[in-house]
Each structure stands twice: as C-alpha cells, then as structure tokens.
Amino acid sequence: MKIAYFMDTLPPHYDGVVNSFLHLIDTLEKENVDFKCISSFMPAQEFSWSHRVFKVFSVPFILYKDYRVGIPYFNRTTPELDNFQPDLVHVVSPTILGIFGLKYAKRRKIPVVSSYHTNYVSYLKYYGFPERIEEVGWDYLRWFYNQFDRVYAPSPTTARELQNQGIIDVDLWQRGVNLDNYSPSFASSELRSGIGAEKKAILLFVGRLVKEKDLDDLCEACSLLRSDGMDFKLVVVGDGPMRDELEERMPDAVFTGFLKDRALSEWYATADLFVFPSTTETFGNVILEAFASGTPAVVVNLGGQADIINDGFDGLIAEANNSYDF
After folding, report:
1. What CATH number is given for 2-172 in this structure?
2. Which of 33, 200, 254, 308 is the most buried (most CB within 10 A)?
C-alpha cells in the first residue's frame, strides 16, 4: 500500500492537525506502509520520514502569516506522484493543494479520501466577515468534499454538522494519544514552586493564541474568579498573534510560549484544571492530552470537544460564550 498525503501544515509548524498526523505517521512506519507527503513545509532532518516530503511552492495565508498555502506546479508535482505511484490519495486541507491532490487522483483513477480537521467557516466571524460569507464557505466545502470517496470527521458532533450541511459519505475517524508521552507521573513540584503556586490551583490553557479559540471568554472568566476572591495561577502554553494582548489583559498569568514533548507533558500533569473555552473545535486533542495526564477539564457545549467530556465526572461542560458559566 502506498499513500500520498496532501497537507499544507507540517513541522516546524505545529497545531492539532499536525499532531494528529504525527500520530498517524508512527502507525504508518510501524506497519511498514509506504507514504509520501506533498506539503508547504519541509520538516527538519531529525524526523525519520522527512525524506518522504515533497515541498511545493507556497504563499503566506492571509489570516495567519505563520501558515502557508501550497501552490503546486503541475509539471513538477505530477511526475513526483507518478514516480511514487500511490494506491490511495488522502487530502487533508480544502485548499489549492487539496484541490490538486483531488484532481490528480481523479485523473489517475485512484481512490481518494479526505479528513476534516478545521472548522474554517466558523473562523470567519472572528475576522470581520459578514454572516452571509459563511453560506458561501459551506457552498465551497460541499463542492469540495462531495467529490471524495469518503470524508473522515474526528468527532460525532463534527460528523453530524458535515452531514447536516449536505456533505455525504462521512465517517468517523477518532483520535487517541500516546500514553508514553502523557502521564500523571510527569507532575513537577519544581514547575509549581517556580510560579509561586505551591498553595494555589493551577489552571492551564494549551493552544494557539488566536481569536477563534475564544480567549476573550477566558480573560473574562479569570477576571470573574479573581473578583470573587479565588486565588489561582493561570498558565498559558502556546503562541500566536493574540499573545501581546493577552499578556496585557492577564498580567498575573504565566505565558510559556510554544512547548512540546516532556516540557509540555509536565505542565499538563502539574496543572489542577485544564480550561478550554473554544467553540470552533472539530475535536480537541488537548482535552485527551490533559485527561491522559490526570487533569480534568472545563470546556463549552459547542464543538467536538464536548463529545470527549463526561460532564460532572472527568470534567465540566459550560455554556458556550458565557464567561460567568465557564
């Protein structure tokens, strides 16, 4: 079996999509599945599979300068794929690169599937686009995804949303985490004492610092807690365009920047509560990572992350965009 993947994001860029793909690569290598990635990014040689990546020309994404949109040259990318001779094409992004992968598979009569990772349409309102543009967005996504043999969604909520929007042949592709990487045993008294939280609860957020994570709600919720006399320490792991604003609004919080591997795992295990106000998630890998670390979570009732929580048992589900309830 040979699989060609078309995805705009790979290390050194990290997000939930990349993390899911890195887990998949581990399985592909263990099962000796041959694969090639067509991408806008070229991972460092420290990755054992970096030689399997074919980097295409790309331009910065208009909303995020750190993201890039691949624009593959037909006369370079097509021969690369023909030499590889894939048995299956898997398209990850509904972008120009994804359209290229879809059309290549159709021309070569190769089975082609896609996985839905990002709720792009829900992002539009955060950047000033009028509501009617969301309808245009769903029109495009219907046109795009209904050309695939199968579309994989990461959560039941996301699968239902796609089906309700008229996207057919949707199936569930659930996620997991490597328990070798996340464990309560990674809790660090040094981290706790280092931020002066020996006798305080540590609240943890992990993710990109962007508008669509509903971080305004997190700021307001923390302000409400402090006004009620709650003594806690908020730790924010991640980076993004909102960081300066968040540091100004939450001067008592600890901002670590982007972390991965053991440095990230220690914060998950050290925290007392994971807090995640985002309403735009298709799944929420970070919730599973927190659970694997023995840390309960508070999320909201809009998005795929609510499927993970057993409300009142391993976490709490608050009303979306309600800072007081959160």
Report:
1. 3.40.50.2000
2. 308
